[in-house]
Design brief:
Chains B, E: One of its GO terms (molecular function) is ATP binding. Chains B, E: InterPro entries: AAA+_ATPase, ABC_transporter-like_ATP-bd, ABC_transporter-like_CS, ABC_transporter_ATP-bind, P-loop_NTPase. Chains B, E: Pfam families: ABC_tran. The complex is a heteropentamer, with 2 copies of chain A, 2 copies of chain B and 1 copy of chain C. Chain A is mainly α. Chain A is built from 10 helices and 1 strand. Chain A is flat and about 65 Å long. Chain B has a domain of about 130 residues: P-loop containing nucleotide triphosphate hydrolases (Rossmann fold), CATH 3.40.50.300. In chain B, β6, α5 and β7 form a beta-alpha-beta unit. Chain B is globular, with a radius of gyration of 19 Å. The chains are: A mainly alpha, B alpha/beta, C alpha/beta. The interface between A and D is large, with 83 and 84 residues. The structure holds adenosine-5'-triphosphate (2 copies) and magnesium ion (2 copies). The site of one adenosine-5'-triphosphate (ATP) has 12 residues of chain E, from β2 and α1. One magnesium ion binds next to α1 of chain B.
Chain lengths: ~290, ~260, ~325, ~290, ~260
């Protein structure tokens, strides 16, 4: 073995590998070098807050220093003032209420429909064979493109808004549900069959709870989609609503108000995410 | 209950896994089935339990069914097959739920199972909180709750470490001493077969055919005694001889992708 | 219809945009002229002109007032909507929409509306009123819409953003927006559409089925609408010899109604009050020209007879 | 035991369970009843085609029978004619080309950015702690609400279109990537460390290929999102493009042309899905 | 190579898993470590291999390193830890890639490993196409490719069925006969320890402490012979006695949720 070998052979590979076939070496006692660690996720609670604070500071700074026109990028202080104004005159609550109702109804309808179809596709091969291509064909259809047709089909009232959000939520829910059912361990189903459990009981006691984690993960995505679509939905003759508010602020070129509305949407996203996390922790404590 | 397997053949699409199996289990008998990986042992058990529909041949049962039996042919699984979202007692309750039992009867059956398997203190625990051995004890308690006439065990101990395996074998022996349930016991482990079975059925490599049925003369109760060791070593030698070449070849076979 | 039925107020819904051009409707509603006719009229506000006739076509609303677009004529060609009266129009001396040039384009020689040939103009959408305004400007100055680059941006905020960012040379913008832009020094107003090319900007419309089945209701609606129109005209459309606005009778009261309905400050509203015909008469020639223009652009079915989109029996033209 | 017990005790649970404590019974020889099966997915190649055919037939029938006005729901034949017209006058190809280029560039940019950030969040705890809340705050912001700002920031040319699609793709890619990295088996990483593999090699040889299935699954979602966003992107001063085409048809209330455009988007979705399936089968044949 | 463990203690957060371990492995010795589940065996191995940083105490090595050794301390894993996306030969090549070896040397090492483990015909196969036994053979071939001075084996056979286990034990014995590599062999299985080890270290239930170090007097080569059985049975009895109570208690301990 060449003598260019390092003196430390412990857990450390030799820097220059051997080329020849000399005899082995002997090394003096030395500690084993640590080479593990990393690739795990540790929690840093403060980091998120720090990041938000830094982001706001930079944004405010850019505006204060006149690097960006207040029309193009109003400073967070202006956005904050606009938001405070919305709180003060009660319009925030009015708009929020209208949007929340639409999101809630649209999301629930889309989710129920999606879970129903998803369950059918998860359980029946024929439904699956029919459904998969239909879903991949209909999923990528942009809801905003269909707004004129939605008005014709569902009118200009709440139904068309529910439909916009509902259809947006429906397809991802279908996909999440049938994938979740695919991931229910087959051995549990075979076990239930071997104990003679009836089909309905298997569905209720095994397939449904087993698919729950996947379905809840889908909720995370569909909640974001519902928030995104509330703006599209409120393009159709809405008087109140965060989406309508944002659109109107845009029409009046009030960028600070616009961003205040966007901020509200973002906060709603964070709030829904938190609720889902709590729900997951409760419902999926068995994992 | 007796099990009568005749002319049994099974194919998955174009892969024949069992070929002409003829087998009879006597009332209260424990038959161990050994054979190389992939030879169709689990399939055989599945057919016997009505979970897999055989391609040809028949499996029939006859004989005594114990009092209060809800599911005459009952499985115990290698991977325990516990619902991770149910507590220990609810996992046992699962198999009683769709039967019209009185609440008292249901409670009584669950409690008996829990106590017999030393699970009483863990009845509110979730499967994830249990060790492997405890989980299989839940599986056994669940099987006992339906008062089976015949047990089908598919490598019930092979997911456990060697120490827990030893402990659970004692549990099984105790169980059979009391219940005299007929059992079909699939295993890879010669030591398990030698400790628990009345007869050992050696299957050939896929397609599984019966190579030999070996009877262990020594009664189960006396197999731990020194005097029994000679006979057991001899049976072991014979079984290992039957197995080794097949096992080696099966191990080197590339699985179907 | 029995006496009992006649007594119960008939229900109707009218769709409009929250703009001062819908002023007469707001006035008729606020001052109870509909109620006087025995109509219970609901006002439904929209954010885009395109949606109003669609809502009439779908039967969600009975009447609509808004600007005339190619989409409107397509619905008319399918027998879904019919114009029954005029709304506002672009008229000399009434600054509704301005041609604006960016400072850079102005410096490069874009000084009058006639210079727009060959330039990039931001509009909302293909088939919108802005598109037609470019079209009639071209008809006047001898260029076709093919000779300008129209940049569809779907909405006024995007148009303003593109204008400010210098992405386009010019924009046709509503008066409030254009004045704001000029005040900010973002560009220059080259002229007003009303001065350059007067045209029939908007109309009151309903569905042919409505006219056929509920003609008395339509007539009642029209009577109330005309009353409000006349009042609006008297208050806002008077000009002195120099062309300066003169406050007519009821000016402040009506201005307050419109400001309330559009959620804007009265001063802002006052700057952009459009001209309306007191008898709700249409510029029939212009409507015919609109249809022909859209047909030549390939955006409206060639088979559509321009006269068939109007039912002038209610305004007696 | 009550004598109401059925004669067949084999694999069948007694219909009336025992209440008392009589002695066990004896049953005559009888076959074991089959109680397995179901809950598996079989392929039915024909079903999808049949479903599409049935859908078209019903749709055409509804129109022919005059159950729906052609304005509300133009029959497939009219949509087909509109599509044929697009093919004949070359506008289909023109629009398709423009949109495909935007989708491709926007998707690639968003995906590269998202994977970069996702990898950082997958590997570094601090990046994860900062990134997760930022992503959940920014993800639900609707792109259409920000169009005026996008114009100010990126102009009305192609960059703003790339940005609209890119941002839409970015966030889901980030989430898919770091979740995929989380799912790389830690035992493989420990193995590599125990053989002294350097950090970069672990990333390249283990983390990247191990995360690939999750990342590819993310592509399926982001491809749909890119298709949906091409309409939003082409709201901004686009002359050609399927999105611009659909918007114009909507504005002009030409519902048959509108649906023809939507059909093209759908077919694009199916095509991209097929390509991804092929890619998965090639790259993930080891699963 | 010798291994010197002294005063070793390890805690995960507030859970102490190893407490004051003192241990010396002689050159070429095979030391089996047995102990109840969760007592810290894998942790001990991880510390010895530099994969886990100990809370207190030290692990040192000294002595002979074989010719061409690239990774003196090398693991063989229970779950094989093969990259599923690489073929058998590329899995072996992985651990050679970051070393400056000539192409010929690299090929030679891979090929030797493949041939010795009877994997040559499967070199292009993916792990999913192999049986468990074959997979562990790839794991062994990979470990041999770096010519280790010491092997750390964490229950290398416990994911395999009993038959394959028997076959692989023969492979290990052949390996040690040729290489004389020092080895720390963690197992649950008394039979494996009795077949392979020079000494057996029995750990107590968590926190793991050394309960006893048992030397097996019979040389490894002769343990299959009838004459050795008496001694082995006696050692087995002693080890099982040390284990049983601890195993029972550990099995009934709810794992930390
Ligand atoms: N549902 C199935 N579809 C297709 N092939 C199957 C199916 N189930 C099992 N097989 C194949 O049939 C053969 C026998 O399987 P089986 O599980 O009965 O073997 P086994 O003897 O239990 O093996 P092991 O000892 O590994 O448990 C195997 O090659 C397996 O791959
Ligand atoms: N990374 C970790 N973080 C926290 N606790 C850990 C970690 N790894 C192991 N533990 C805990 O430390 C204890 C000892 O673990 P270890 O894996 O060393 O035991 P073991 O003796 O190998 O057990 P087994 O026989 O089941 O493999 C267990 O209770 C385990 O839950
Ligand atoms: Mg099996
Ligand atoms: Mg361990």
């Amino acid at each position: 073995m060449p003598d260019s070998l390092p003196a430390s052979p412990s857990a450390m590979p030799p820097a220059r590998p051997p080329a020849g076939g000399a005899a082995g070496r002997t090394v003096a006692a030395q500690p084993v070098r640590f080479r593990g660690g990393g690739f795990t996720v540790k929690r840093h609670g403060w980091a998120a807050l720090a990041a938000f604070a830094a982001l706001l500071a930079v944004w405010e700074g850019v505006s204060r220093l006149g690097l960006a026109s207040p029309l193009f990028l109003p400073p967070p202080s202006a956005v904050g003032r606009a938001l405070a104004g919305m709180v003060a005159d009660g319009s925030l609550w009015l708009n929020l209420k209208a949007s929340l109702a639409r999101i809630a109804v649209g999301w629930v309808l889309g989710t129920l429909g999606g879970m129903l179809v998803g369950f059918a596709m998860g359980i029946f091969s024929t439904a699956r064979a029919v459904g998969v291509p239909l879903v991949s064909a209909f999923f990528p259809i942009p809801k905003i493109a269909l707004l004129p047709l939605f008005i014709l089909w569902f009118g200009i009232g709440e139904p068309s808004k529910f439909a916009t959000i509902g259809f947006g939520v429906f397809f991802p829910t279908v996909i999440a549900t049938y994938s979740a059912i695919d991931s229910v361990p087959r051995n549990l189903i075979r076990m239930a069959q071997s104990f003679g459990l009836p089909w309905g009981a298997i569905l209720r006691s095994i397939v449904l709870p087993g698919a729950l984690p996947g379905i809840l993960a889908g909720f995370r995505i569909t909640a974001s989609i519902a928030l995104i679509l509330v703006v599209a939905a409120e393009m159709i003759g809405a008087e109140y609503g965060i989406g309508a508010f944002v659109l109107m602020a845009g029409n009046l070129m009030q960028t600070d108000t616009l961003l205040a509305g966007v901020l509200v949407l973002s906060l709603m996203g964070l709030a829904i995410g938190t609720v889902l996390s709590l729900l997951e922790r409760r419902l999926l404590n068995w994992r | 209950m007796r099990l009568l397997v005749s002319e049994l053949t099974h194919r998955y699409e174009d892969l024949t896994v069992l070929d002409g199996i003829d087998l009879t289990l006597a009332e209260g008998e424990i038959l161990a089935v050994i054979g190389p990986s992939g030879c169709g042992k689990s399939t055989l058990l599945g057919i016997a339990g009505g979970i897999v529909a055989p391609t040809a041949g028949s499996v029939r049962v006859e004989g005594a069914v114990p009092d209060g039996c809800l599911n005459p042919i009952t499985f115990i699984f290698q991977d325990f097959a516990l619902l991770p979202w149910r507590t220990v007692e609810d996992n046992i309750a699962l198999v009683l739920e769709h039967h019209r039992l009185s609440a008292a009867e249901r409670r009584e059956r669950t409690e008996t199972g829990l106590r017999r398997m030393g699970l009483w203190d863990f009845r509110k625990a979730l499967p994830k909180q249990l060790s492997g051995g405890m989980r299989q004890r839940v599986g056994i308690a669940r099987a006992l709750a339906v008062r089976p006439a015949m047990l089908l065990l598919d490598e019930p101990l092979s997911a456990l470490d060697a120490q827990t395996r030893e402990l659970l074998m004692d549990d099984f022996l105790g169980l059979w001493r009391r219940e005299k349930t007929t059992a079909l016991y699939v295993t890879h482990n010669l030591d398990e077969a030698l400790r628990l079975a009345d007869r050992v059925c050696v299957l050939s490599r896929r397609p599984g055919r019966i190579r030999e049925l070996v009877t262990i003369e020594e009664p189960r109760e006396r197999r731990q005694e020194p005097s029994a060791q000679a006979h057991l070593a001899e049976v072991r030698e014979r079984l290992w001889h039957l197995m080794k070449a097949e096992a080696q070849m099966a191990d080197r076979e590339i699985a179907r992708a | 219809p029995s006496a009992a039925l006649a007594q119960a107020p008939e229900k109707a819904t009218v769709g409009a945009l929250a703009l001062s051009s819908s002023g007469p409707i707001f006035i008729a509603k606020a001052k109870g002229y509909f109620a006087k006719e025995g109509l219970d009229v609901d006002l439904k506000l929209f954010t885009s002109a395109q949606q109003v006739p669609v809502a009439v076509a779908s039967g969600d609303i009975g009447f609509g007032v808004t600007g005339l677009t190619a989409g409107f004529y397509n619905l008319a060609s399918k027998g879904a909507v019919t114009i029954i009266a005029a709304q506002s129009r672009d008229e000399p001396g009434f600054p509704l929409s301005a041609y604006m040039a960016t400072n850079a384009a102005y410096d490069a020689g874009l000084k009058t509306p006639a210079d727009l040939k060959g330039k990039r103009i931001a509009i909302t959408t293909i088939g919108s009123t802005f598109h037609y305004m470019v079209g009639i400007l071209g008809q006047k100055h001898g260029f076709t819409v093919k000779e300008v680059t129209m940049v569809p941006l779907q909405g006024v905020p995007q148009m303003v953003a593109a204008f400010k960012g210098g992405q386009v040379d010019a924009v046709i913008a509503p008066s409030t927006v254009s004045r704001q832009l000029a005040a900010d020094g973002a560009g220059r107003i080259l002229g007003w559409v009303g001065d350059e090319t007067p045209w029939q900007l908007g109309a009151l419309f309903t569905s042919p089925a409505m006219i056929k089945e509920h003609r008395p209701a339509v007539e009642k609606f029209m009577r109330a609408y005309k009353t409000a129109l006349a009042e609006y005209h008297a208050a806002f459309n008077s000009r002195d010899a120099a062309g300066k606005p003169v406050k007519g009778p009821g000016y402040d009261e009506l201005l307050a109604i419109i400001a309330e309905a559009t959620k804007q400050k009265p001063e802002i509203v006052a700057e952009g009050l459009p001209y309306v015909d007191p008898q709700a008469r249409l510029l029939v020639e212009d409507v015919v020209n609109q249809v022909k223009f859209w047909q030549s652009e390939g955006q409206v079915d060639k088979a559509l007879d321009p006269k068939s989109v109007m039912d002038l029996s209610f305004v007696g033209q």
